[in-house]
Inverse folding.
């Protein structure tokens, strides 16, 4: 009984002072200060733009967080999203039924990440190498297939990300619902817990009867699901699809995960944190314009946030090691 | 510790805002500017001696059939299909010119050199090119000149001494004037506007912004510059930046300039999705394909670029004039059929003329 109560207090404290709490406080503080400097920042339209702008990054960061928590990484995700967005737009323009032009890229995305998962899990290729290779393949084939031509003349009803059920933009719905679902799955299901186990201590997980191979394979497939959804949101946000790989998209997604408190060493972190971090990054980007600061600072700030979070994570690990 | 760090950062970021100076013309470079006359008369062109190369004992082709090859950066894309179309148009009109287009299927300088080399071996009267690299292409072009072959560039220049003439599609001050004039026509002489560019250090964009500013000061002095933002060449980022500008300035913002073929459609999309069509004008550099939906919806009225069909057309006329001895080093103009007389600028360049403005009436004629 005493242990249970202690656990609950600790859990409560973790929520208040954990990475999620820090990010939430930073977002609120940023809104208050920039809002005081320029009240238009807090206007409803701008708040919607902030949540809308990075929603697809938050969705992709959910899967990326799982990959990183399992002790892996995927640097091909930006190229994957670019390719799947192009696939989606091409199918829609070719006259496929609109729901299929949303679903096929998601399935294709899962197939591609499954290949990567197979290479990493069963052939033991380090994930950084497997995903670097996949990045080149995807980037190259996209240029060969499209020749850089843009996709326009998308059919009516295709623009999923421009729909606004209950006057909230669709990407925001996706971001909130998927984050909640993924967070619950990772916390309460055996499969979700196994991701932490494999990433935290693969040997202990093996002794506990968890197959590293199967978990890694599953993580990459689930990651493909989220990357595919992100690609469809990305493709449907504007009425033209650029059909090139957005510059540095994979870094933005990994940044959201890491700043969200996902340990780059694996084993810890939550998808709530990565979503809050994606929102924080979008809010910083918007506030820089509102207060007339060069957007170059956004990259500098991102870099400092990454270093600060990783340093804090290392410090925490050392402390824990010392306690043992 | 983590907490402290992130808080410190957020506070530092906000503190920085107080110090930040307003730099309204961010994105322009510091090079000298040369704004054109307001009325549209061509500006004074500083005389510069001819600096092109000359072929070695070219055959006398005056009035005889002229066989040309055209080697663009790459083939199979709309833009160079359009230049090629212009060349055929000029050839049909002249009657005594045969021009064929052939080149690499991707913008690769090595393959382009191989193509030109093969044509030299096969024997032609003239080579038209759009260089993938101004320096790397020079040796093979000089080899052509050496064999008495005429060499004319268009769209993308080579080192001047590696070709006789270059048909220049647009000068920076011409683009600057066209952008500002079109914006002034849409939002009025006292309108306020912001700019979405790629990065502050991209050479072409920085040059255009500097010329826009100089021309606006001279000819539309009451227009107000609000801000320049960077958006890389990223569609969604451009959209987000343009949306943030709309949110930030509200009714104060009358117009948005897009400085790249990515930023302009994304800005138009931002205006469309914000329901501000008719309230916020979008003027910019872009290709017709990217802008077609917004021009057709009426949200965007003018897209500024040159006309690639005219560019190819002019290149063939220049080649014909050179072969006929009607365009020699030191000449100040050349006759280019339906385009009229084109001026020689910068020593050995022929200027296509003022930029072309795509609008609802003509945009469907172009596919690139």
């Amino acid at each position: 009984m005493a242990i249970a109560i202690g656990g609950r207090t600790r859990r409560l404290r973790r929520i208040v002072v954990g990475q999620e709490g820090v990010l939430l406080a930073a977002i609120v503080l940023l809104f208050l200060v920039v809002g005081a400097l320029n009240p238009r920042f807090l206007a409803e339209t701008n708040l919607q733009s902030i949540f809308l702008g990075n929603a697809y990054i938050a969705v992709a960061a959910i899967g990326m967080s799982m990959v990183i928590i399992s002790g892996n990484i995927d640097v091909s995700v930006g190229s994957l999203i670019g390719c799947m967005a192009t696939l989606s737009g091409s199918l829609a323009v070719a006259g496929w039924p609109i729901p299929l032009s949303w679903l096929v890229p998601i399935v294709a995305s899962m197939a591609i990440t499954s290949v990567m998962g197979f290479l990493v899990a069963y052939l033991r290729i380090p994930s950084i190498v497997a995903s670097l290779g996949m990045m080149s393949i995807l980037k190259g084939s996209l240029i060969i297939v499209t020749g850089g031509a843009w996709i326009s003349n998308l059919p009516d009803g295709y623009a999923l990300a421009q729909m606004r059920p209950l006057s909230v933009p669709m990407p925001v719905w996706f971001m909130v619902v998927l984050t909640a679902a993924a967070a619950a799955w990772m916390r309460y299901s055996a499969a979700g817990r196994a991701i932490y186990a494999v990433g935290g201590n693969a040997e202990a997980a093996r002794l506990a009867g968890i197959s590293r191979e199967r978990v890694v394979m599953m993580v990459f497939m689930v990651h493909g699901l989220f990357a595919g959804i992100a690609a469809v949101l990305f493709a449907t946000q504007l009425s033209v699809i650029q059909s090139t790989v957005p510059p540095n998209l994979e870094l933005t997604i990994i940044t959201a995960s890491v700043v969200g408190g996902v340990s780059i060493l694996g084993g810890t972190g939550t998808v709530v944190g990565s979503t809050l971090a994606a929102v924080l990054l979008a809010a910083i980007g918007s506030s820089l314009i509102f207060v007339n600061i060069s957007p170059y600072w956004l990259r500098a700030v991102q870099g400092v946030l990454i270093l600060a979070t990783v340093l804090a994570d290392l410090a925490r690990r050392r402390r824990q090691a010392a306690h043992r | 510790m983590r907490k402290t760090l992130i808080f410190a950062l957020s506070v530092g970021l906000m503190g920085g805002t107080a110090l930040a100076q307003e730099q309204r013309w961010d994105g322009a470079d510091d090079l000298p500017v040369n704004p054109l006359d307001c009325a549209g008369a061509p500006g004074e062109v500083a005389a510069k001696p001819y600096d092109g190369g000359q072929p070695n004992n070219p055959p006398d082709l005056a009035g005889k059939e002229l066989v040309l090859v055209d080697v663009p950066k790459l083939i199979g894309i709309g833009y160079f299909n359009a230049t090629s179309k212009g060349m055929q148009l000029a050839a049909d009109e002249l009657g005594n010119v045969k021009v064929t287009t052939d080149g690499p299927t991707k913008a690769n300088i090595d393959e382009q050199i191989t193509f030109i080399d093969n044509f030299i071996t096969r024997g032609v009267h003239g080579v038209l090119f759009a260089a993938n690299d101004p320096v790397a292409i020079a040796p093979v072009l000089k080899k052509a000149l050496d064999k008495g072959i005429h060499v004319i560039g268009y769209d993308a220049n080579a080192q001047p001494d590696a070709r006789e003439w270059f048909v220049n599609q647009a000068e920076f001050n011409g683009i600057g004037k066209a952008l500002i004039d079109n914006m002034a026509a849409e939002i009025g002489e006292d309108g306020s506007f912001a700019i979405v560019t790629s990065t502050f250090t991209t050479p072409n964009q920085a040059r255009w912004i500097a010329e826009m500013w100089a021309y606006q000061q001279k000819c539309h002095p009451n227009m107000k510059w609000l801000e320049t933002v960077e958006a890389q060449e990223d569609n969604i980022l451009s959209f987000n930046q343009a949306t943030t500008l709309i949110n930030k300035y509200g009714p104060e913002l009358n117009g948005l300039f897009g400085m790249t073929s990515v930023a302009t459609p994304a800005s138009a999309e931002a205006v469309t999705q914000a329901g501000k069509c008719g309230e916020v004008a979008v003027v910019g550099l872009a290709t017709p394909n990217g802008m077609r939906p917004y021009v057709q919806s009426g949200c965007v009225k003018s897209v500024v670029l040159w006309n690639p069909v005219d560019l190819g057309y002019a290149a063939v006329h220049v080649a014909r004039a050179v072969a006929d001895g009607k365009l020699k080093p030191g000449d100040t103009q050349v006759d280019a059929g339906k385009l009229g007389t084109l001026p020689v600028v910068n020593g050995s360049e022929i200027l296509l003329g003022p930029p072309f403005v795509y609008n609802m009436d003509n945009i469907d004629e172009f596919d690139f």
Notes: The two ends of chain A are 24 Å apart (CA to CA). The domain at 51-155+163-318 of chain A is CATH 1.10.3470 (ABC transporter involved in vitamin B12 uptake, BtuC).
